[in-house]
Design goal:
The chain is of the alpha+beta class and about 190 residues long. The protein contains 3 helices and 12 strands. Strands 3, 4, 5, 6, 7, 8, 10 and 11 form an 8-stranded antiparallel β-sheet that branches. The protein has a 4-stranded antiparallel β-sheet with strand order 2-1-12-9. It is elongated and about 80 Å long. The N and C termini lie far apart (about 75 Å).
Length: about 190
């Protein structure tokens, strides 16, 4: 039985469309960082990131009530690294780790920069309001201490496809802050 020319065009077009969709699933669309309660539930925060792009965790040390900034980044596979720690004073649990980064002063702050130390996925127990565990990303600030005080959350990242990233640009995850807005900021 012979296949007509119209049918060949339909089959070829369908195969071409499948090839295009399949190939776009393979192109990297970057990464997504998910901050999710350890005991389950919807993510508190979903951040689209590029490899090497920073996000910061800012909080107030529970003993000294001094501000601390921890700058993190992701590698292309989604592994999390701590890049820098900055704090007002040398205090409880803070300080230089031999062989990691270099210590500098920035005004009243001390900083350990150029750390690039792998942490991988990690768990953070969110502090009370006042500790103000806040994630800073692309100019947004999301105060996790207001969203989920005393909850253990996991920071984990995964690579996403180009198609997924395109979808998220049109339909952002409900836990992704709008750029230029402060979310649950104290």
């Amino acid at each position: 039985m012979a296949v007509g020319p119209v049918r060949r065009i339909i089959i070829a077009g369908t195969l071409l469309a499948l090839l295009i969709v399949t190939s776009t699933l393979q192109f990297s669309g970057g990464l997504e960082l998910h901050i999710t309660p350890v005991k389950g539930g919807a993510p508190l925060l979903v951040l689209p990131l590029k490899a090497g792009e920073p996000f910061t965790i800012h909080y107030y040390h529970s003993v000294e009530n001094a501000p601390i900034w921890e700058v993190h980044s992701l590698d292309p596979s989604g592994r999390i690294f701590i890049e820098e720690e900055r704090y007002l004073k040398f205090g409880a649990g803070m300080g230089k780790m031999p062989g990691v980064g270099r210590m500098v002063r920035r005004g009243p702050y001390e900083a350990i920069e150029e750390m690039h130390m792998p942490t991988g996925d990690f768990v953070l127990r969110i502090g009370s309001p006042g500790v103000d565990h806040t994630v800073i990303w692309r100019g947004t600030r999301t105060n996790l201490s207001i969203l989920a005080p005393h909850v253990a959350v996991q920071f984990s990242a995964t690579p996403v496809s180009w198609l997924h990233r395109g979808w998220r640009r049109v339909f952002p995850h409900r836990a992704t802050p709008s750029i230029g807005n402060e979310t649950n900021n104290s």
